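Hi support team,

I've been running sequence recovery on a batch of backbones for a student project. Most finish fine, but this one hangs at about 90% for roughly twenty minutes before it completes. I'm not sure whether the input is malformed or the queue is just slow. I've pasted the structure tokens below so you can try to reproduce it. Let me know if you need the job ID as well.

Thanks,
M.K.
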């Protein structure tokens, strides 16, 4: 997957981690809850979250 990205997008946009899931966490209106996905991956990979301004 990352090999495909290397020739098609900028190097800083290539994802470090890729995980395939059956379904995404959704709201009642059908939008994907990105903050839930982000928090789940931080916990699973034991990552530290950088603070921004």
């Amino acid at each position: 997957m990352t090999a495909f990205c290397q020739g098609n997008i900028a190097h800083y946009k290539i994802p470090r981690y890729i995980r395939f899931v059956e379904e995404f966490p959704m709201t009642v209106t059908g939008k994907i809850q990105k903050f839930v996905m982000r928090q789940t991956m931080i916990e699973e990979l034991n990552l530290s979250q950088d603070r921004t301004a």
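--
Follow-up from support: It reproduced on our side and the slowdown came from queue contention, not your input. The mean pLDDT is 90. No action needed from you.
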